[in-house]
TrEMBL record:
<dbReference type="InterPro" id="IPR051134">
    <property type="entry name" value="PPP_phosphatase"/>
</dbReference>
<keyword id="KW-0464">Manganese</keyword>
<protein>
    <submittedName>
        <fullName>Uncharacterized protein</fullName>
    </submittedName>
</protein>
<keyword id="KW-0479">Metal-binding</keyword>
<dbReference type="GO" id="GO:0046872">
    <property type="term" value="F:metal ion binding"/>
</dbReference>
Length: 117
C-alpha cells in the first residue's frame, strides 16, 4: 500500500511540475508576443513622427516642392508625368526601370533590393 501511495505521489508531483512548466512557457511566449507587438507599434509611431517632422521641415524650406508633390493639380497627370518628376542622379547604380514593368524589370528590382542598391 505504501509503494502504491509513493507511485501516486511521484506521478502527481511529476504532473504538477509539467503543468507549472507549461504555464511558465505559455506566459513567456505570451510576453514575447506582447512585447513584439508593442515594439512594432513603437516603430510605426517613430516612423510617422519622423515623416511628420521631415514633411514640416521640407514644407518650410521648399514649399514649392511640397506643392508640386502633393498639390491638387497632380491628380490629373498620368504616370509618365510622375516619372519625369523624379530626378535620378548619374551616380545611381541600381536598377533602371521602364514602365510598364516586365518580369525582367521585376527580377532586376528584386536583385537590387537584395544587394541593397
Amino acid at each position: 500500500a505504501i509503494r502504491a501511495a509513493m507511485i501516486i505521489q511521484n506521478w502527481y508531483r511529476g504532473y504538477s511540475t509539467r503543468l507549472k512548466a507549461r504555464q511558465r512557457y505559455a506566459l513567456t511566449i505570451f510576453q514575447s508576443i506582447e512585447y513584439a507587438d508593442e515594439q512594432g507599434q513603437m516603430q510605426l509611431s517613430n516612423f510617422f513622427s519622423f515623416m511628420l517632422e521631415n514633411y514640416t521641415k521640407a514644407h518650410e524650406e521648399e514649399p514649392e516642392l511640397i506643392t508640386r508633390l502633393f498639390g491638387s493639380n497632380l491628380q490629373y497627370k498620368d504616370r509618365e508625368d510622375y516619372v519625369k518628376m523624379i530626378d535620378v542622379p548619374d551616380s545611381y547604380n541600381g536598377p533602371r526601370l521602364q514602365f510598364p514593368l516586365t518580369f525582367t524589370d521585376i527580377d532586376l528590382l528584386l536583385e537590387g533590393f537584395k544587394q541593397q542598391k
